[in-house]
Amino acid sequence: MGERDALLELRGINKGFSGNQVLKEIHLDIRPGEVHVLLGENGAGKSTLIKIMTGAYTKDSGDIFWESNKVEINGPVDAMNLGIATIYQELNLIPELTVYENIFLGRELKKNGKYSLLDRKTMRLKAEEYLKQLGQDISPDAKVSTLGIGQQQLVEIAKALTINAKLIIMDEPSSSLSESEIEQLLTTVMELRKQGIAIVYISHKLEENKRIGDRISILRDGRKIETLSMAETDTEKMIQLMVGRSLDEKYPKMNFQLGEEGLRVEGLRLKNSSKEISFTAYQGQILGFSGLVGAGRTELARGIFGVDPVAQGKVYVFGKEVKIKCPEDAIKAGLAFITEDRKGEGLILDQTLEFNITIANLKKLKKNKFLYKDKMKALANDYLKELQVRPGDITAQARKLSGGNQQKVVIAKWLCTNAKVFIFDEPTRGIDVGAKVEVYRLINSLVQDGAVVIIISSELPEILGICDRILVMNEGQIVDDMLREQADQEKIMKSATRGN
Ligand SMILES: Nc1ncnc2c1ncn2[C@@H]1O[C@H](COP(=O)(O)OP(=O)(O)OP(=O)(O)O)[C@@H](O)[C@H]1O
Ligand SMILES: [Mg+2]
């Protein structure tokens, strides 16, 4: 097909940030009604490229064509007027408002022209219609705060329909969703496609890309390597093209010697909960927490770490009872909590990597300054290199890193604390397949050095690939406990969904 068929065409797009060339001569065409997957390593330039399509960034040079006409997209309004909508990973809804109020936010319908009363009735009906069009049965009157992340995302998509979007761009929409929510999202994407809407879809989940995409474009170091039809691509080939080599193993599992009891939790009950939780984690046994999003795994970790208040229960670290009332207590007791929320709790985005890894750490360690700044800096540099953080320059501002690279910095930061018990919450969210392997290797070496490792993950292949023992949570309780050898996806899913 020629460029005449394109809905959106990019020709020779260049973009740099203070001398750092991030996009180099990108040519790309998006056809009406196709799902076009963008794939590339962390920092390859995917988010930057779509921000140029949505007017969040302006290109340095190159041309953009929309339905064969040359256009300039100088801001979000330009993109909206053309019919380009974006679903970012961080959703832009207002939690206190209802679904329909959010859908029409800023474009409210009025009864008699501009200055009259809001036409709530029509907005409700329209909202309902758009949601139905997506095959969704979400009430237009529901408050957004009462919806799960998956449903909120669907509200954002409904919002895109109200501007008659012809192109919807989704940047890692599935990364915070549970398996069933991902299914729903994929169904919705297929529905949009049927209606002739084009989708640009970014995800590090290769199987998902394979299922949903019509074509795939691969970026590497700011260059477009190739655009292929999905039919002629498999996950092996995707890896090969994005990393420039093949991966010998996705899960470098090691066998460890079972050691001492490291973390014991007895009868822990969170405030606002009636459920008690007990479990023990050992050295030499990576403990995985599986379950649906919302099963209470993150809440449990937050309770143990002193982020959220606990009503009752005891915590022992290497046999010694510890009283944890706040995160500082937890750090002092030798705990590390690598959170999934890199912006909220993980990083200070306006600061440098050095500040985030050393100063922020030392401040928290207070009296416990077993590592001095220089030593920590050297260590930080090592970890940044091992995790292939780009840019690996310790003086770079955290905000300027791509999403996946920020997540790697959060991991590096906690590795520098000398903790004895590590709780990882969705450690590889947003991290590309190649770098994931490095994260697993680091986790392995932590265990080899005697640390106790607990991993919360919603990705079953990850849980099965790296954990030695798996606890399944369901509605705030541990409902199953199995060794790796006894576990499989089906068994875990059964326990995770029992009674739901
Ligand atoms: N505002 C900015 N200032 C300076 N550099 C930036 C800025 N935004 C992005 N970059 C750099 O541009 C490059 C591409 O980043 P981008 O966010 O597009 O990557 P990505 O492909 O989306 O990666 P990920 O998979 O991790 O999300 C990175 O090297 C990043 O550090
Ligand atoms: Mg990105």
Automatic annotation (TrEMBL):
Its main location: membrane. CDD domains: ABC_Carb_Monos_I (cd03216), ABC_Carb_Monos_II (cd03215). It comes from the Bacteria. GO terms for cellular component: plasma membrane. It is found in: Cell membrane. The keyword Ribonucleoprotein does not apply. Residues 8-246, 258-500 form the ABC transporter domain. InterPro entries: AAA+_ATPase, ABC_carbohydrate_import_ATPase, ABC_transporter-like_ATP-bd, ABC_transporter-like_CS, P-loop_NTPase. Keywords: ATP-binding, Cell membrane, Membrane, Nucleotide-binding, Repeat, Translocase, Transport. It is a peripheral membrane protein. GO terms for molecular function: ATP binding; ATP hydrolysis activity. PANTHER family: CARBOHYDRATE TRANSPORT ATP-BINDING PROTEIN MG119-RELATED, GALACTOFURANOSE TRANSPORTER ATP-BINDING PROTEIN YTFR. This is D-ribose transporter ATP-binding protein.
